[in-house]
Amino acid sequence: MVLLIDKWRGRIQLLSHTQNSVVYAVDTDDGVGEGRANETATVLKGWAVWYRGEEPLGPLRPPDIADWIVRREAAIYEQVGRHDLIVNYLGLEVAVLRGAGPEPKAWAIRLERAPGKALRSYLRGPAPSERARLDLCLQFARAVAHVHSRGVVWGDLSTRNALVFSCPTPNPRGGAAGRSSDAAASQASSSSSTAPPSSQQSASSPSAPWRIKLCDFGTAALFENYDKDYWGAEVRYTPPGPSAHLDKRGDIKDVGIIHRELFALGSAICEITEWTVPYGPEHEVTYEEVQAMLLAGEWPDISLDNPAEDIIRRCWDYQYVAASEIVEDLESIISQSTAPQQDG
What we know:
Layout: H1 2-7, E1 12-17, E2 22-26, E3 42-46, E4 49-51, E5 54-57, H2 63-80, E6 89-95, E7 105-112, H3 130-149, E8 152-153, E9 162-166, H4 181-184, E10 211-214, E11 221-222, H5 257-274, H6 287-295, H7 309-316, H8 323-338
Antiparallel strand pairs: 1-2, 2-3, 3-7, 4-5, 6-7, 8-11, 9-10
């Protein structure tokens, strides 16, 4: 595979390659010129890399299955619609593919490229101000509320799937955090591109406010179609208990889909306000160690002075019935923190 990528060096920027999908950019898009794939304004997410009718990498799925998966995620993006806090979906790529029969197949979705990386990857840097972190929580919750208002369960709710579009902090070094393929689409550098760093986008500016957009709806579904017993969130965003190692939690009864989604939202708010991943940083605490803590009944730590503690615990206690309620409570906390102090 390395030889194939070397052959297309500069023409293809391979941003993420997982067992489920690949995210990449090509120099034939957006008028960037030959060898400048890393300068495109858009990226492609699919189940193979296609370049001028050739397939340098893939397929990860048979064409018929890949066609169904691509169209499914495209339909979710269309259902969610345009929103300032959701990565822009720009269309479905369809063509007659070599070796895939005479019928056109969907081979990728096109998305806007983020200049920054996944929000989680910034946690290794210094924490922003409390107000900035609360603003990030509010953006995240507003985006989730919009997704829900469109009748969609996100499923893979995580800061791994929130891309940074502006911030006062330089992009963190290294690969995109977590396993999200869309989140990796924000990565500004890749072994498959040789363009100098100065030509690459940057989200950072000393005066820029934090701004994020949510992405990756590969496991999302309409509420009526979502598995009513499935805990889709990552392991760090699931409740402790004797069945914490299972996707279907027999130890937690009568917890509806919306409450599972809002539980994960509470964990995201905890992560952002604490500026650390629940149960400890991923490079220090392994997946297996997190599972052991969950099975032992341990909960993530919350600082005594965390202004969003009540919101987080209400999410974990299944007391909210809509993300819009969480938005209102976050707005209230922010307004109180900025209100002028009264004497006496």
